[in-house]
Amino acid sequence: MNTMQNTKFVSSSQITRNWFLIDASDKRVGVLASKITSFLIGKGKPQYSSNLNFADNVVVLNAGKVEIHDRKKNSKVYTRYSGYPGGLKKITYDKMMERNPKYIIEHAVFGMLPKNKRGEEMKKYLHVFVDDKHNLNKNIKFTEIKW
């Protein structure tokens, strides 16, 4: 009796993408980013394959109400460098929260994604909004994530 099992490969046309809705109010940035990253990478799907993009769409609401540990509020600094002498720009967490709260979540999530072409593709499936309203299609069926 032959009991050989065959591996079934998934093509990119067979991938189904779900929509997840996450409310970020009163959530810690790191915990939130790791949960979002698991949806973007898609490792929880049974047909996961490392060479394909299995990213689900993730919509994050209330990015302006996200929390960070008290010790880190004073020490967290976002930096960017233009490449020119004297081109180092530093922005503290509080100022970044006033200017662009979306960046805080995006920066944390993008740091956890792979640094290759697949990681760049996964970034397109993250949608972050500052308040509790989004401008996406109203016909989308969201799965609300609560924890």
Summarize this structure as a short list of keywords or feature phrases.
globular; two-stranded antiparallel sheet; alpha/beta; 5 helices; 147 residues; single chain; Ribosomal Protein L13p, Chain: A; four-stranded parallel β-sheet
Verbal overview:
- With 147 residues, this protein is an alpha/beta fold.
- The protein has a domain at 18-68 and 101-132 and 141-145: Ribosomal protein L13 (Ribosomal Protein L13p, Chain: A).
- 29% of the residues lie in helices and 18% in strands.
- It is built from five helices and six strands; from the N terminus they run βαβαββαααββ.
- The protein has helices at residues 29-41, 70-75, 93-99, 101-110, 117-123; strands at 19-23, 57-61, 77-81, 88-92, 126-128, 142-145.
- The strands form two sheets. The protein has a four-stranded parallel sheet, covered by helices on one side. Strands 3-4 form a two-stranded antiparallel ribbon.
- Helix 1 (29-41) packs across helix 4 (101-110) and helix 3 crosses helix 4.
- The mean pLDDT is 93.
